From TrEMBL:
Cofactor(s) listed: [4Fe-4S] cluster
The Radical SAM core domain, residue ranges: 167-370
Domain B12-binding: 1-120
Pfam families: B12-binding, Radical_SAM
Protein name: Uncharacterized protein
GO cellular component, one term: cytosol
Keywords: Iron, Iron-sulfur, Metal-binding, Methyltransferase, S-adenosyl-L-methionine, Transferase
Zinc is among the record's keywords: no
Length: 370
């Protein structure tokens, strides 16, 4: 048996017909640790898999310690373990760390555990031995995102996917469009993932084809009654141009559901807005991030003019497409005057929603070491 915290890489386990996977996602109105302990008692897992961000690491350790107390093997993966494996593996309650993508590594690990075989040489895994020696395996090849099984959301509670959206409660299903991003934003880990996989001659940024996306969405509609699509991608238009044109042709014919996407302001054009409108786009999230051109280009490596941002948002406004704008404040060396540059730029655009977030220095980003 296997136990996993929410992680899109669960799709790999569909191949393990002789084992069982159970997701743990804390309920809003109950004690998460009590729920977790009850699930451990009921399910009696052999493996706990934790997907961790740096700011969720202390929370994850609470669950890992409970599993460790019960002598259950714990593997930690995700962005934080990828860029801080030495920090994560030193925790007594963590037995294995997955560096980079986890589909192949987790599948190999579970197969080895089921067969009672050694898993010391599985690529991507750092393994803590009984004498506390750490085996550090090299990362292995990337997965082909077009060949992955569809995510098995049956392991989640049916009510997990109901979300409020523009005054309605909808059944929203996330669709992974592509992995990675070709841009170099210094507050994001994606550039470092690109560097990590270039060491083995691989390109981390990979996009699903339009046909694969359409087929996957059809599956979610048939299997989970999705009525709203959440395109999960750092930058929607980072896909190859021909993929978008194919998707723009197929989506209204075969899907037609409203959808949400995120992209950068400089990727917005009149033609793309027209096609998105025909596809039934519901909301677009735009990363503005900072209002000072010089600071944005020098510190964040987002080289675009404020006029380009304003013009892009105007195109969306004229098309009557609701827009949410993201801003980040509290960057290193940011002054009060620079923050007000961001405020002033937001005053020049028309949006449905404005988000403002405090900057978090994540390990694996260029700004972390500034």
């Amino acid at each position: 048996d296997m136990e996993a915290l929410s992680n899109e890489e669960i799709a790999s386990f569909n191949q393990l017909k002789k084992s069982t996977l159970q997701a743990f996602s804390p309920a809003k109105n109950t004690n998460a640790m009590e729920d977790f302990c009850s699930l451990l008692e009921e399910f009696k897992p052999d493996l706990i898999a934790l997907s961790i961000l740096e700011d969720t690491f202390p929370i994850a350790l609470d669950f890992a310690e409970e599993a460790h107390r019960r002598e259950i093997t714990v593997i930690a993966g995700g962005i934080h373990p990828t860029f801080s494996p030495e920090v994560v593996i030193k925790e007594k309650c963590v037995d294995i760390v997955c560096v980079g993508e986890g589909e192949n590594a987790l599948l190999s690990l579970c197969k080895a555990m089921i067969a009672n075989e050694s898993y010391e040489n599985i690529p991507n895994l750092w393994i803590k031995c009984l004498d506390d020696k750490i085996i550090k395996n090299q990362i292995g090849p990337l997965v082909n995102v077009n060949e992955l099984p569809y995510p098995d959301y049956h392991i989640f509670s049916p009510d997990r996917f109901y979300r409020p959206m523009q005054g309605k409660i909808l059944r929203i299903l996330p669709i992974e469009m592509h992995r990675g991003c070709p841009y170099q934003c210094t507050f994001c880990e994606d550039p470092s993932l690109n560097v990590l996989y270039k060491t083995i001659g691989e390109n981390y940024h990979r996009a699903k084809t339009a046909r694969r996306l359409i087929d996957e969405i059809k599956y979610f509609i048939d299997e989970f009654e999705a009525n709203y699509i959440y395109f999960n991608a750092e930058t929607f238009f980072a896909m190859p141009q021909k993929y978008f044109f194919e998707l723009a042709d197929l989506y209204p014919k075969e899907i037609g559901l409203p959808f949400w996407l995120q992209t950068r302001p400089e990727t917005i054009t009149e033609e793309r807005v027209r096609l998105l409108k025909q596809m039934n786009v519901s909301n677009i999230n735009i990363g503005l991030e900072h209002g000072n051109e010089e600071f944005r280009a020098r510190v964040l490596k987002r080289k675009m003019a404020n006029k380009r941002i304003i013009d892009s948002l105007k195109l969306l406004q004229n098309a009557d497409i609701p827009v949410t704008v993201n801003n980040i404040m509290g960057y290193p060396d940011e002054t009060r005057e620079l923050i007000f540059d961001t405020i002033e730029l937001n005053r020049e655009i028309s949006t449905a929603t404005i988000n403002a977030y405090l900057y978090n220095p994540y390990k694996g980003t260029e700004l972390y070491d500034l």
